[in-house]
Amino acid sequence: MTEPDHPQPTRSEQIAAGLDAVRHRIARACSDAGRDPGEVTLIVVTKTYPVSDVVRLAALGVLDVGENREQEASATASAAAEAGLAPRWHFLGRLQSNKARSVAGFAHLVHSVDRPSLLAPLARGAAERGAPLGCLVQVSLDGDTHRGGTAPEDVPALAAAVAGTAGLHLAGVMAVAPLGADPDRAFARLAALHERLLRDHPDAVVRSAGMSGDLEAAVREGATHLRVGTAVLGSRASLR
Ligand SMILES: *Cc1c(COP(=O)(O)O)cnc(C)c1O
Fold first, then answer.
1. Does ligand 1 lie within 6 Å of residue 43's CB atom?
2. CB count in 10 Å sphere of residue 240
C-alpha cells in the first residue's frame, strides 16, 4: 500500500491549523498593541458545528466555546457534558425571553443582554442552577437595535438593572462592529462606553469584541474576549 502524495488533512489537523493561525494573530496584535496576551480570552464559536468539534477543540486546549441559538446550544452543551467535557459556554445570540431561563442553565457568560425583560427569566434560570450568572450588556454601536444590542444611551440604565438583579452579575459589555463600519472606530466607541461604565461598576471588566475579520482592531481597543468562528473552524455551511 502506498500513501497518497497529498493526504487530506484530518478534521483535527484542520482545526489545529486554524487555531494556530488565530493564536498567532492574537499574539501579534497584542505585541503590536503592547498588551499581554494573557489578558485576552479566545472564545471559539462552534455554532453550526457538531459536538465532535467541541471535543477536538478541548483536546487542543480550548475551554471557552460560544453558541448563538438556544436550542442548538443546549443540545451541544448536553452532548459535550455526556462526553465528559465541561467547557465554559458563552451565549452570543439574540435572546428570546422564553429561552432566557434555559440559557441560564448552561451558560457561563451571556454576551447578549440587551433589554430589561430578559433579566427576570435569566435570574430564575440562575437560581434553579444555584450559581450567579455573568451577563454582558450588548451595545448596538450604530443604534440599529434590530440587529441586537441596546442603544448606547440606554447602557447605563440596563447595566444598573443587571447589577441590581439578584443572581445576575454584571460582567461587562459586548458589541459587534456594524456592517460596513470601520472596526477601529466602532470598537473605540465601545471602549469609551466601557470606561464610563467601569466608573460605576468597577468589577464589570469584560469587553467582548472582535470576530474572525476584525480581531486585531478589537485587541487594539482593549478587548478582553474575542469571539472567533470561521477563522478556526472554516466557513459555516449556512450563514446566519
Ligand atoms: C458567529 C458569531 C461570531 C463569530 O463570527 P466569525 O466571523 O465566524 O468569526 C462572533 N460573534 C457573534 C455574536 C456571532 O454570532
1. no
2. 8
- Ligand 1 nearest-atom number relative to CA 211: 9
* Interval 93-103: pLDDT, tens: 999 999 999 99
Cα 6 to middle of ligand 1, angstroms: 32
CA dihedral 201, 94, 41, 104 (to 10 degrees): 70
Q: Is 76 in the pocket of ligand 1 (CB under 6 A)?
A: no
* pLDDT tens-digit map of 138-163: 999 998 888 899 999 999 999 999 99
What phi-psi label fits residue 172: left (phi over 0), alpha (psi between -120 and 50 degrees) or beta?
A: left
**C-alpha 1 – ligand 1 centre gap (Å):** 43
- pTM of whole model > 0.90? yes
Which grid cell is 21?
A: 493561525
